[in-house]
Design brief:
This protein is an alpha/beta fold and about 290 residues long. The two termini are about 35 Å apart. About 40% of the residues are buried.
């Protein structure tokens, strides 16, 4: 993707609060986007491991003792129960789920799978729901949601689109943690069953992980990188179940730290380059319902 911006992209960057400089005839130093692409190209994607280690994930977030270890047989049973669920049935399952302690703080689940299945090339996964998301029952609302919408417009996508112009939004877990506490590693793993089902249905070509908890789960195939600070996870291409993953800042962080908006723009440009480098889907695949996994 060229960094020559048209009027629409400049307007979107202004909405994000990023100052846009006009091109200069003088040579300039390598910018953040070019540096991010160069680093991503020089560092091959690490080979996926068969099983993500629970210890690095727990070390990244645990500020209090973990709940009892997850019952793997129960998780396998839940995954089988979610198999075949779509739209309303998947939403109802998430709304009634009591598989972990996060349900105690929930008003509404934020899983918003539409009634009619729509394939979207972009999938944006954010951190656990906050109060507004919990109240409204959907991810990325209010000011963070408006900022994300403008960011997506800048790369030609929206939450109401489909295919190349479509972006499906989700949270890494579907319930707001009780009393605002941090989610535990076992809870992230438990709720991953829903995220995996969403991926199977939406069939995204790229996942944008926004926030440290989203990155923690989606980098579980890269356990060494999953334990790093988010700022050191940026600028690389990872994989989650075969889907490319780009890490960036959550919009709520960008609203507090406007200096990071330029970095988030570089992340979007890297994501767009990755997306445009992938082969197009066959026409039949775009309209057909995904095969059951």
């Amino acid at each position: 993707m060229s960094l020559d911006l048209d009027d629409r992209q400049r307007a979107m960057l202004q909405e994000m609060g990023v100052h846009v400089w006009l091109p200069s005839a003088e040579p300039v130093q390598e910018d953040a986007y070019a540096r991010a692409v160069r680093v991503a190209q020089q560092q091959p994607v690490p080979a996926a491991v068969a099983t993500a280690a629970a210890a690095p994930r727990a070390a990244a977030v645990a500020t209090q003792p973990d709940p009892a270890p997850a019952d793997t047989a129960s998780m396998a049973g839940e995954a089988m129960a979610l198999h075949g669920l779509r739209g309303p049935a998947l939403r109802q399952s998430a709304a009634a789920c009591q598989a972990c302690g996060l349900c105690a703080g929930r008003k509404h689940s934020t899983l918003r799978m539409p009634d009619e299945l729509v394939q979207a090339d972009w999938m944006v996964v954010g951190d656990p729901p906050e109060e507004d998301e919990d109240r409204m029952g959907q991810p990325f609302v209010e000011q963070p949601g408006l900022l994300l919408d403008n960011m997506l417009k800048a790369v030609g996508a929206s939450r109401s689109g489909q295919g190349r112009q479509g972006a499906y939004l989700s949270n890494v877990v579907k319930c707001r943690p009780p009393t605002g506490r941090l989610p535990q590693a076992a809870e992230l793993a438990q709720c991953a069953q829903y995220l995996q089902r969403e991926i199977a249905l939406v069939q995204p070509k790229l996942i944008l992980a926004m926030g440290r908890f989203a990155a923690q789960l989606l980098l579980e195939e890269h356990p060494t990188d999953a334990a790093l600070p988010l700022g050191k996870q940026r600028g690389r291409v990872y994989r989650y179940q075969g889907v490319p993953v780009i890490v960036s800042y959550h919009p709520k962080v960008l609203l507090r730290a406007s200096a990071d908006k330029a970095k988030a723009w570089a992340d979007l440009c890297l994501a767009l380059d990755v997306l445009e480098s992938l082969p197009p889907r066959p026409a039949a695949t775009r309209v057909a319902a995904p095969q059951e996994d």
